[in-house]
């Protein structure tokens, strides 16, 4: 499954956040391989629709979509030159599909800041600079080879790659990440550039700052177009230890409607470019992961390759219509069930039954 790397300076709350994600019983998917690597956690994507479907179908179990979070050791200034865990850090981050930057906003004199004081804009800049420098190194190393390939083959695609590489160099030299630029990432995909991955930000704020809208707006503006989540990692780690009722009280006392962890998983899933479709029956109510824009046959293929190969059509009811009508049969009678063919682009929350040849 796709993964999000949790990245940030030391002492910003990365491990606190990661541990809360993987210990949260609502999120921690119970996979035997979840513990193989201590810094990789498999997390269930919360989806209240599954509970409703399970009730409707009297399903024996619920299966959530999952995603991975990877706790990546602290980046420091100079990482791209091998400082700290420099190269290891970059290799780990290269393997992830999106980058979640944790930025410290909380003040705590007991927790030292590597660069002396708490300054979110500077820290965002520090991390982005290291990622940008790493990408510039990658490009510098790759360009002679790419140019030679283009020269010897005169292949149009290869020429386009060289042009894209030069444009990327220019953008990065201006201090702009590729994610935030409008360059097409496709031609440079094979280089696995770090700043071309989708970004998302977690601002680890003090409890009393959780409701500070002006602060939120200011921080969000710093990182646009990336999404930002505001949470207090310490509160999050307390919430997961509490019985439900007490957790709810604590949550309400901080003025939040839901734990920041849930928001993080939901936004993270979308940042990875993913969505889910649903299936339900007596055996299970289940969310299946597909990329946004996936066609009906691709979705069928996630369940079984034979479903994709033999795809005929899909009977689709939106989750809302299904719940409103009470059953697929009632939805059919009300004209809310649709037969869709090979070209159909799946929508989040489609409840699906595939028809296929075996
Ligand atoms: P990492 O180095 O980024 O992984 O940071 P840790 O998660 O290990 O946290 C470093 C220290 O900061 C620990 O002592 C945490 O208890 C503390 N910490 C983490 N999040 C918060 C927070 O939201 N508020 C406060 N006051 N302390 C925090």
From TrEMBL:
**Transmembrane region(s):** none
* Entry cofactors: Mg(2+)
- Coiled-coil residues are none
Domain OBG-type G as annotated: residue spans: 2-251
The UniProt entry, under Pfam families, shows: MMR_HSR1, YchF-GTPase_C
Alphabetical list of InterPro entries matching this protein: ATPase_YchF/OLA1, Beta-grasp_dom_sf, G_OBG, GTP-bd, P-loop_NTPase, TGS, TGS-like, TGS-like_dom_sf
The positions annotated for binding ATP are 11-16
Q: Which CDD domains match?
A: TGS_YchF_OLA1, YchF
Q: Which family does it belong to?
A: Belongs to the TRAFAC class OBG-HflX-like GTPase superfamily. OBG GTPase family. YchF/OLA1 subfamily.
HAMAP family to which the protein is assigned, alphabetical? YchF_OLA1_ATPase
Give the protein's function. ATPase that binds to both the 70S ribosome and the 50S ribosomal subunit in a nucleotide-independent manner.
Specify the protein name: Ribosome-binding ATPase YchF
Q: Which organism is it from?
A: Actinoallomurus liliacearum
Question: What lineage, starting at the top, does this entry show?
Answer: Bacteria, Bacillati, Actinomycetota, Actinomycetes, Streptosporangiales
Q: Which gene encodes it?
A: ychF
